[in-house]
Amino acid sequence: MKYLSEYRDADIVAQYLEELKKTVTRPWNIMEICGGQTHSLVKNGLLSLMPDKINMVHGPGCPVCVTPLHLIDKAIYLATTQRVILCSFGDMLRVPGSTHSLLEAKAAGADVRILYSPLEAVKLAKENPDREVVFFAVGFETTAPANALSVLHAQREGLRNYSILTSHVLVPPAMEAIAGDDSNIVQGFLGAGHVCTIMGLTEYYPIVAKYKMPIVVTGFEPVDLLQGIVMLVRQLERGAYKLENQYSRFVQETGNTAAQQVMQQVFEVANREWRGIGNIPLSGLEVRADLALYDANKKFDIAIPPVTESKECIAGQVLRGIKKPYECPQFGKKCTPTFPLGAPMVSSEGACAAYYHFSQAENRVAV
Amino acid sequence: MCLAIPGKIQSIELRYEGKVRMAKVSFGGVVKEASLEMLPAAKEGDYVLVHVGVAISLVDAEEAAKSFEYLKEIGEIDELIDHTQV
Ligand code: SF4
Prior knowledge:
GO molecular function (chain B): carbon dioxide binding; iron ion binding
Strand order of the largest sheet of chain A: 4-3-5-6-11-10
CATH architecture of chain B: Roll
Oligomer: heterodimer
Number of helices of chain A: 16
Bound molecules: iron/sulfur cluster
Strand content of chain A: 15-25%
Family (chain B): Belongs to the HupF/HypC family.
Strand order of the largest sheet of chain B: 3-2-1-4-5
Order of helices and strands of chain B: EEEEEHH
Protein name (chain B): Hydrogenase expression/formation protein HypC
CATH class of the domain at 69-170 and 256-295 in chain A: Alpha Beta
Structural class of chain A: alpha/beta
CATH superfamily of the domain at 69-170 and 256-295 in chain A: HypD, alpha/beta domain 2
Pfam family, one (chain B): HupF_HypC
Order of helices and strands of chain A: HEHHEHEHHEHEHEHEHHEHEHEEHHH
Number of strands of chain A: 11
Distance between the termini of chain B: 15 Å
CATH architecture of the domain at 69-170 and 256-295 in chain A: 3-Layer(aba) Sandwich
Largest sheet of chain B: 5 strands, antiparallel
Helix content of chain A: 25-40%
Radius of gyration of chain B: 12 Å
CATH topology of the domain at 69-170 and 256-295 in chain A: Rossmann fold
Shape of chain A: globular
GO biological process, one term (chain B): protein maturation
C-alpha cells in the first residue's frame, strides 16, 4: 500500500478494487498491451491488491524491448564506422545489442545523442551539413506520426543528410498474433490508450469479432487501469465481447486523422520481426520506397553478421503470459536490467524489468 | 518513451512558408517546442497532449492538470527534463 497512499485517488482506487472483488467469480487472464500500463500496474503495487482470480498477463507493448538485436547492431555500426551522428530516445540508446549499447559506443567515442524529439534530429542535420544524421525511429503508432514528420521536415528543408532507421511496430497485428496462437491463454485485452489516440478504435472491432474477445481501450494511471479491468471483467463474466473505451477523454472513434495522414505519407506497412516473439506479418512500418533518401537501411550499405538470441531467455512465454518473469530461471540472476538476456528486461516498460525494479512492492516475487 | 504529457500552448509561430505551426508549450513551467501539425484547430491557451515533440490531442484544462500532477508524482516529468540533458 505504500505506493498507493501517495496518490490523491487512493479512495477511488479502493472503490474500484471493491467493485472488482464483487464482480469476479471465476479466474480470468487479462493482457495489457502497453508497456506503460505494465509499468504502472507493477509500480503502483496494483497486482498484489487485485483479487487472485485476476491474472494480469504483460504483453509485448514496449517498442524498445521488441526491437531486434540486429537493428541495434546496425545502429551501432552506423555510429562507429560511418561517422554518423546517431540519435534516438534515451531508452533506445541504453539497450545492449549483441555486444554493447549505443551509449557504450558513445563512451568509446562515437557521436551518439539522446534527443527528446525526432524533430530535434532534423535541426541537428541542418546545423551539421557535412555529417549524416540518423534518427533511430522506434515506436508504436503513438510515435509514428512524430517520426514521419521528421522526414517531412527534412524534405521541406531540402536536407539530404537526414535519414531514419525504423523499428516501428503496430499493435493490432501483435494482438492477433497472441489471440490466434495455439498456446494462447489471454481472454481479454486492455487496449493501449495513447496508441488509440492516434489510430482511433476502428482497427479493433474485427479483432473482437474474430476472436470473440472483449477489448477495453484504457489509460495508464492506476484509476484508469482498474476501471478498464472492471469493465473488461464485467464483460467476461457475462460472456460478452465488445469493444469499449475507458479512455474517451483522449480517444475518439476515428483517432487523429491528421496524424494518420502524415503516417501514410511517409510509411508503408511491412512484415516485422519482434524480439522475443518472432516475425509477425504486416506488423510494422517502413519508409515508403519513394522516400528512400530518408531511409537509413537503403542509404547505407550495412553489412553486419546475423545474431541469435540467448537460448536461456523465455521471453516468448513471458510475452504470451504462459510464464511470469520470476518463473524464468535467469530472472535476477544472469539476467538483470544492467545485463539483460532478453527483450522484456531491457527497458523499465518491459515485464521482466518492471518486476525486477519493483520487486519490493510485489511480494509474490522472490529475488 | 511512450508517455504523452499535457501542457499549455503559450505561443504559436509559423514555419516553412507558413505551412507548419510550431508552439511553445509549458509543462508546469518547463517550456518545450511542439509541432501543431496534427492539431489544426489548436490555439494559444489550449491544453494539448504532447508526445516526443508533437501535440497529438486537445485536452481540457482540468484533465491536463490532473494528468500532469500524476506524472509528476511518479517522477516521469523529471525524466522528460533529464532526457534532454544527457
Ligand atoms: S528474466 Fe531475462 S532471460 Fe528471463 S525471460 Fe525475462 S528477459 Fe528473458
